[in-house]
């Protein structure tokens, strides 16, 4: 397929590049190694109006140790991690990771920063960066900020980067003495994307007791997953076979959060899915249905895509949890947006005008908004042959709830209503998003071997 038409600019400074990104309001894309972006353009999975090629900006190609850590510049290629002496000696997990990415041709071109900025759950560096406790240095129109790797990945191909920000550097704290790490990747054949992979970085004291542990997983969910429980379990324990086996069980439980052993992601248009019905193990839609004119009808279109026995996960605005924001919105509108009282997100973004503006547009000025209760969405489930499993405040999806797909216990309606009233306080920060999980009725079909 031929890409959609686009303009091409090759600025010679970071400021110029950021200005071009800002002018195009989310329609421009940075081009670094092009190893992910160009295939996406060819498949028309991305159709930016402008490509901002950062390869001619000087001073961004380095892998060097200074100020108590390793710094990887925006234009450092994967291959440079393979040949760097300091990486081999002090950060071997980075060498381990880089050498299992694709083939030498790709590794000579692809950048390490592009690998993380892309937000692909199948990419290898994100889990490694989480295990190492790395941060991403990001520059935008209002200056530079540093985002911890564990907070960077927000969803499928979605990161904490604003559309006019560039990852200029990855900063990794130097591991203390007696540290080590490894990246283990399960792949169908050499050079493939991971079926699944694990990154582990540990520090031991002189008695072989673990004093720091970072464990993270690749391609077992829509983002890299930090196996928080496994890391915490290893702390303050001598590393023996029993401890390692138990930590591995905890990491496997984190991987199993989505109950998937093979992950293929397909994105689609809600109004015209164009996909075969009854084909998907999991159908996921978060923060979308409540902005469509008829959320119930949109839900029905999505529900048809799930296999019998398949899971349906929807994130929606909750009618109760949304009350604080509606009050703030009424005050804001009455005062011509001079007062947006007690909005924690606006407060956090006080030095980031663009991101404040984005939140204001999404939460205060969106032309289409619906709000729902658990009971109402249970009605949608019933009408579409979907069995109710449970409802969550959305914040819980980010931790490691083992019970994500476990049917709700007592199922008391009064308790359900009370919980939603409680979400008014806990979900204020997130704009009132809650998650409902259901299972398409019918026995799962027996999978036939691929023909
Ligand atoms: C055949 C093949 C096999 C592959 N196998 C693997 C594999 O096994 N494991 C693996 O991890 N990856 C694999 N990849 C993917 C590839 O290695 C990475 O995604 C690549 O490293 C991305 O970096 P890039 O410099 O090429 O980014 P680009 O393709 O130029 O950009 C990717 C995305 O990131 C954005 N971006 C790039 N740089 C920045 C920046 N500095 N700041 C902000 N945004 C930025 C772009 O706008 C774009 O959206 C494979 C790719 C190919 C073609």
Bound molecules: flavin-adenine dinucleotide
The coarse silhouette is globular
CATH class of the largest domain: Alpha Beta
Structural domain tally: 4
What would a concise description of this structure say?
The chain is of the alpha+beta class and 451 residues long. 32% of the residues lie in helices and 24% in strands.
What does this structure look like?
By secondary structure, the protein is an alpha+beta fold. The protein has helices at 14-23, 37-42, 78-83, 85-90, 92-98, 104-109, 112-117, 125-132, 149-152, 228-234, 241-255, 295-303, 323-334, 344-348, 353-364, 374-383, 413-426, and strands at 7-9, 28-31, 50-53, 63-66, 69-73, 135-140, 143-148, 153-155, 158-159, 166-173, 179-186, 196-204, 210-218, 225-226, 280-286, 306-317, 386-393, 433-440. The protein folds into four domains: 7-53, Uridine Diphospho-n-acetylenolpyruvylglucosamine Reductase, domain 2 (2-Layer Sandwich), CATH 3.30.43; 60-257, Uridine Diphospho-n-acetylenolpyruvylglucosamine Reductase, domain 3 (2-Layer Sandwich); 280-322 and 371-440, Vaccinia Virus protein VP39 (Rossmann fold); 323-364, no CATH class. Strands 4-5-10-6-7 form a five-stranded antiparallel β-sheet. A four-stranded antiparallel β-sheet has the order 11-12-13-14, with helices on both faces. A four-stranded mixed β-sheet has the order 15-16-18-17, with helices on one face. Helix 12 (295-303) links the parallel strand 15 (280-286) and strand 16 (306-317). The chain starts with 6 loop residues before the first strand and ends in an 11-residue tail after the last strand. Residues 29-37, 39, 74, 101-102, 106, 110-111, 113-115, 117-118, 120, 123-124, 161, 166-167, 193 line the site of flavin-adenine dinucleotide (FAD).
């Amino acid at each position: 397929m031929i890409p959609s038409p686009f303009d091409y600019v090759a600025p010679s400074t970071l400021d110029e590049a950021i200005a071009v990104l800002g002018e195009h309001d989310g329609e421009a894309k940075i081009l670094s190694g092009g190893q992910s972006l160009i295939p996406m353009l060819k498949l028309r999975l991305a159709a930016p109006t402008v490509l901002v090629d950062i390869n001619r900006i000087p001073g961004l190609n380095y892998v060097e140790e200074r100020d108590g850590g390793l710094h990887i510049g925006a234009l450092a290629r994967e291959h440079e991690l393979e040949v760097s002496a300091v990486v081999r000696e002090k950060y071997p997990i980075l060498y381990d990771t880089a050498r299992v990415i694709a083939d030498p041709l790709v590794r000579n071109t692809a950048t390490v920063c592009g690998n993380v900025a892309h937000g692909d759950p199948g990419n290898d560096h994100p889990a490694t960066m989480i295990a190492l406790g790395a941060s991403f240095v990001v520059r935008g129109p209002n200056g530079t900020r540093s985002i911890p790797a564990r907070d960077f990945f927000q969803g499928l191909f979605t990161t904490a980067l604003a559309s006019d920000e560039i990852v200029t550097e990855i900063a990794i704290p130097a591991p203390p003495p007696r540290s080590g790490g490894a990246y283990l990747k399960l792949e169908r054949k050499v050079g493939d994307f991971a079926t699944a992979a694990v990154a582990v970085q540990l520090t031991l004291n002189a008695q072989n007791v673990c004093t720091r542990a970072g464990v993270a997983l690749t391609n077992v969910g829509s983002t890299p997953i930090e196996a928080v429980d496994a890391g915490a379990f290893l702390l303050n324990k001598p590393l023996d076979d029993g401890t390692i086996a138990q930590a591995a069980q905890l990491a496997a439980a984190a991987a199993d959060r989505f109950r998937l052993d093979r992950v293929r992601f397909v994105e689609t248009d809600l109004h015209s899915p164009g996909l075969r019905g009854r084909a998907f193990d999991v159908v996921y839609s978060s923060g979308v249905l409540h902005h469509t004119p008829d959320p119930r009808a949109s839900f029905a279109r999505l529900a048809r895509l799930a296999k019998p026995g398949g899971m349906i996960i929807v994130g929606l605005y909750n009618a109760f949890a949304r009350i604080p924001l509606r009050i703030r919105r009424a005050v804001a509108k009455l005062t011509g947006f001079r007062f947006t009282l007690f909005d924690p997100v606006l407060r956090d973004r006080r030095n980031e005008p663009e991101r404040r503006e984005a939140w204001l547009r999404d939460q205060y000025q969106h032309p289409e908004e619906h709000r729902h209760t658990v009971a109402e969405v249970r009605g949608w489930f019933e009408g579409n042959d979907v069995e109710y499993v449970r409802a969550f405040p959305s914040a819980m999806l980010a931790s490691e709830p083992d019970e994500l797909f476990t049917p709700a216990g007592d199922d008391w309606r009064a308790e359900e209503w009370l919980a939603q009233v409680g979400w008014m306080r806990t979900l204020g920060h997130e704009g009132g998003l809650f998650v409902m999980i259901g299972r398409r009725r019918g026995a799962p079909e027996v999978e036939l071997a691929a023909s």
